[in-house]
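Database export, one record per block. Field names are fixed; values are copied verbatim from the stored entry.
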Amino acid sequence: MVGGHTRKNVKNVCLEVAPIEIKHLRYIDVPKATRSTVDAFRDDTYIKYFTDADTVPFAKLRDYLGAFSSLADAIHFVKVFTINNGEAVLIIVDSPGAKRFGPLGSVIKPLLKACWTEELTKRHGEFFGKMIELLEAAFGDSYKDMIEIRSLATSPEQQGKGYASALMRIAAEMGDAQGRGIYAVTTDAYKFYETVGYTIVQEGTVGAGNAAWHGPPIVVRVMYRAPKIATSITM
């Protein structure tokens, strides 16, 4: 620390920034990763679209249970990377046909859906239907063979430290090494994705014309990054 010292005392001090260390998420990290994920997405417009229709008690608890089961199952079926044991989390699906739910989600998800109102069920179907529509419009069936960024989240208290960018470099390296494109579906985070090399290839809206929704239409965007193939120069 340099606080309280005179300029003469600190003029030769060099502040070092600790390197960002990325690891595979472990089961012991899932509770912390769950909090980071739920908190990171709480103000996202598509989450607000869902929570607006969720009038059943204990909505916050159900959000945590859903995120917890998704993260725990993802460790088993796909690739999950983290920084600081859950402060930032990236879920990558790089295997075609990978399961979305595992043994925990197969139990938890039906219980959570049983609590959904009719309007919430309608909005979930609308959103995920729009997502598939946009993916097919952008890529046809070939999106099923691409790498998917299923989730990217950083705890609000840790944002601005470069954690998300560091995690996305892992995805980029994977895509380049395999010669495969990468896509992400997002609402509010599209400007971040643009900073790490993604472009908007399709967009559409949900919520337009829904008399039960009093906010503006939610813009859903498909982002894409093409693989960068290294070229060799022969002398």
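Remark 1: The beta strands are 22-24, 79-83, 88-93, 147-154, 182-186, 199-206, 218-225.
Remark 2: Helices lie at 7-10, 30-41, 45-51, 59-77, 103-113, 118-139, 163-178, 190-195.
End of record.
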